[in-house]
From TrEMBL:
The keyword Oxidoreductase does not apply. Keywords: Membrane, Transmembrane, Transmembrane helix. This is DUF1304 domain-containing protein. The chain crosses the membrane at residues 55-71, 78-96, 102-119. It holds the Pfam family DUF1304. PANTHER family: BLL0914 PROTEIN. The keyword Acetylation does not apply. InterPro entries: DUF1304.
């Protein structure tokens, strides 16, 4: 179960590295294809806002990667739970305010990781 949890953590971290790249470096190019419902004329004026958002996604990815590198099993679990909870909350809020798809892409994998860590700790 712990190995599966670590795989999920790595996947969530990779997703957030992708979000970082998309929002910081590809907002006016690739992001237009990903966010098709977002008005085309708003990509350029919101470039700085998207880059800021991408930076936050990078911090989430860094925390998740850090959790995989910690040697102390107790702290590894705490750090992973903290960052997965941050991702889950952001995904739930995004689904509530922007697009239901965000729940599936962002919150659901984080919630699965949380569940796997908790099952490992308490079973």
């Amino acid at each position: 179960m712990l190995i599966l949890a670590k795989i999920i953590i790595a996947i969530v971290a990779l997703l957030h590295l992708y979000f970082l790249w998309l929002e910081m470096f590809a907002w006016t190019t690739r992001a237009k294809k990903v966010f098709r419902k977002f008005p085309e004329e708003l990509f350029e004026p919101t470039k700085t806002l998207a880059a800021n958002q991408g930076l936050y996604n990078g911090f989430l990815a860094a925390g998740l990667i850090w959790s995989l590198l910690i040697q102390n099993a107790l702290w590894q679990g705490y750090v992973a739970l903290f960052f997965l909870c941050c991702v889950a909350i952001a995904g739930i809020y995004g689904a509530w305010t922007a697009s239901k798809k965000i729940f599936t892409v962002q919150a659901l994998p984080a919630l699965l990781g949380i569940l796997l860590i908790l099952l490992h700790k308490f079973l």
